[in-house]
Amino acid sequence: MAARESVKRVCLAYSGGLDTSVILRWLIEEYDCEVVAYCADVGQEEELSGLPEKARATGAVDCVVRDVREEFVRDYVYTAIKGGAIYEGVYLLGTALARPLIAKHHIDVARATGCDAVAHGATGKGNDQVRFELTFRALAPEIAVIAPWREWDLRSRTDCMSYAQKYDIPITATINKPFSIDRNLMHVSYEGGVLEDPWRAPDEDMFITTVAPEAAPDEPRELVVEFERGDPVALDGERLGPADLLARLNRIAGENGVGRIDMVENRFVGLKSRGVYETPGGTVLHVAHRAIESITMDREVMHERDRMAPRFAELIYNGFWFSPEMEMMRAAIDASQENVTGEVRLKLYKGNVDVLGRRSPVSLYSEKLVTFEDDDGAYDQADAGGFIRLQGLRLAARPK
């Protein structure tokens, strides 16, 4: 907890939602300080409309909005896809990937605006507090950190709504629908409210970027994704920057019901939490990337990367993006992608993503070697006998 008398100006990670709107006012009231609101544009779209005006109306002395969409997709989303990062076999890490980037720019803005402390709206029960603060520790260990959910006497989002009403702070959450929603170019996440009952299915009108699979078009949608050294670079033959490519793929995949996930995950702090996610474009990219790797990546390199993938996903989920072990893993992952270049043809149909074809100018796949027809002596099948005998030596030597 920061010493209140030493805090003169705070840089608050601000979204304009319920929690951070209340926190902005609470900081002014409790710390008697100036507040600079800061927001990173990671693809929230309409959520940023009128944000600076709202922040100033709530009491902020300034509001800084940084467009980091290109950096987010290029350096974080694409890195996760190249590393096969899927947490607990299901979660594609949309929120976890954005947090270290947001926190990195948070520190930059705090320094640029003369702040002596930073504040965030993550609760004491969640993962985001860890992700933000580990980044702060890695990049600016000297800066004070204020985490209101660990300090104040507000105990619920219902309490926050009452506080907002007291200070005439406009909010969009309601008592009847107190969802916590986090949106960026990678995904939309939902938690809280009725979703805290893991037996209850989410309401269909909750979803923003995907249609229900049964409501998707009756005709499949085919598309082609092109990769260079593991990075997606083109869609249906059109070269696109990272943010534009993912945004377009989100629209196409979402229209075809792709990318919904409903899971109970293990938070880093030790709790189990139910989360519902929409990750349409990211789902397609994971499938497509695996397909192009299948013909371009050396077997042993792939297996080593795959052994690393669960740990890589865990480090992302737990907030260790700016750590020595993460630097080592990212370097290894980048090295594994040197040959991952080519195109993948896919079919999207009512929530499914199927691979129809893959091709590469540097493919390791040899039709001549693998054919069941005459291979003109490219592969001597008699060699397999010795190979099997050697592999079976230790099996034959076991006591019977």
Which percent bin holds the helix content? 25-40%
Total beta strand runs:
14
Note the total helix count: 13
Could you say which structural class the secondary elements and strand pairing correspond to? alpha/beta
Anisotropy-based shape: elongated
The main sheet comes to: 5 strands, parallel
Percent strand equals: 15-25%
Explained architecture:
- The protein is α/β, with parallel strands linked by helices.
- It has 2 domains: 4-87 and 98-167, Rossmann fold (3-Layer(aba) Sandwich), CATH 3.40.50.620; 183-359, Argininosuccinate synthetase, chain A, domain 2 (Alpha-Beta Complex), CATH 3.90.1260.
- It is built from 13 helices and 14 strands.
- Strands 3-2-1-4-5 form a 5-stranded parallel β-sheet, with helices on both faces. Strands 10-9-8-13-14 form a 5-stranded antiparallel β-sheet, covered by helices on one side. Strands 6-7-12-11 form a 4-stranded antiparallel β-sheet, with no helix packed on it.
- Helix 1 (18-31) packs across helix 6, helix 3 (69-82) packs across helix 7 (242-255) and helix 7 (242-255) crosses helix 8 (280-296).
- The longest helix has 20 residues, at 299-318.
- The chain starts with 8 loop residues before the first strand and ends with a helix.
- The model has no long low-confidence stretch (mean pLDDT 95).
Task: Summarize the helices and strands and which ones pair or pack.
Elements: E1 9-13, H1 18-31, E2 34-41, H2 51-58, E3 62-67, H3 69-82, H4 94-112, E4 117-119, H5 128-139, E5 144-146, H6 157-166, E6 180-183, E7 188-191, E8 221-228, E9 231-235, E10 238-239, H7 242-255, E11 260-266, E12 272-278, H8 280-296, H9 299-318, H10 324-336, E13 342-349, E14 352-359, H11 367-370, H12 383-391, H13 393-396
Parallel strand pairs: 1-2, 1-4, 2-3, 4-5
Antiparallel strand pairs: 6-7, 7-12, 8-9, 8-13, 9-10, 11-12, 13-14
Helix pairs in contact: 1-6, 3-4, 3-7, 4-5, 7-8, 9-10
